[in-house]
Write a structure and sequence with these properties.
The chain has 423 residues and is an alpha/beta fold. It contains 18 helices and eleven strands. The longest helix has 18 residues.
Length: 423
Amino acid sequence: MIDYQPVILPNIPDLHRIDVYEQHGGYQRIRKAMGMTPDEIIAVVKASGLRGRGGAAFPTGLKWTFMPKETEKPKYLCVNGDESEPGSFKDRQIFEFNPHLMIEGILITGRALGLKAAYIYIRGEYEHWVQMVEAAVASAYAKGYVGEGMKQTFGSDFAMDIYVHRGAGAYICGEESSLMNSIEGKRPYPRVKPPFPAQNGLWGCPTTINNVETIANVPLIIEKGAEWFAAIGAEKHPGPILYGISGHVNKPGVYELPTGMLLTELIYDYAGGVPGNKRIKMVIPGGSSMPPLRGDQLEGVRMDADSLKAIGSAIGTAGIMVMDEDTDLTRILTRITHFYKVESCGQCTPCREGTGWMLKVLHRLEHGEGSSADLDLLHSVACNIEGNTVCALGDAAAWPVRFTIERFRGELEEELVEKSVKR
């Protein structure tokens, strides 16, 4: 194991309380940022190499530059905490154990982009975490760190508000344009882009959307500097990251470590390996929507955006799903496809009809009533969904099916025979 001390989720009891957070340097980074120009803050974040932690791994500082500097319209930030994809469960750790780090990151982002307000979007089922974040925001208001009190606290003309918004409990609400429609009180259909949120976001005003974990890294970069952050982990995808490990491992959970860790080291050294020392059949490295990897592909694979892209997958939310040698792949695909079928908003025909079609075929295969030709049919349907929808949910539904067939064709054929015999 490497020598690393967590900074996003440090082992400090009661850090969610504002007095404890202040005792450990809390809200001193926003004070430092108030002494910097907006361009200086953006330059530091760009130099750090911070990339989004919500799935696309887009450079954060570059994204911030898309926000217009001069506009008569108010500007907004949306903090996306609507995680609901199977295998992704790390943002709630920040909500529970270090919410003020996220709030301080929002304030620094607000200072850099000249924001009027920020919305923390949390899915409705996260009631426990909603209450914790609301309590943290209220205590920050009471201390004068948020709202009009900022002017007196920091001796500045800048002030912004923070609102906590409950989502409707739909996966599509995590898509950035659907999220904005949801905040506006509309049905959360994804919007056609362009225009992009930085030009036409909330209520037609410029809006930036960042993930919870992304924003939580900002105060650390302001405090410790861009060079400190850039020196952690993978060169082109640096910094600490929260790995959520689930499935067939002895110690599932969220582990804060540098980017670029060996996938096998995470599974065996930190998550305790596979129960019964069984072989690994499949790993999905970034949440259920990412292309899966074969167990015999894992040696030497590192958990950063470029390394996973090179091997035909993606880091996504760094939600690592491990499946052992006894895993029923047909059953796994059926469950994943059922999720995306139910969560499809129905706006695009390929997604609405295609996910249902795939689910019907998978049900046939799971009950031993399918044939090898059904695997070709499934692959064809998945390929016709991919890239043909307004938002990325279509790809999210298609990739697990397409790549499991391409990488596990032999195992799926064997399962077909076994299920047919048992029928």
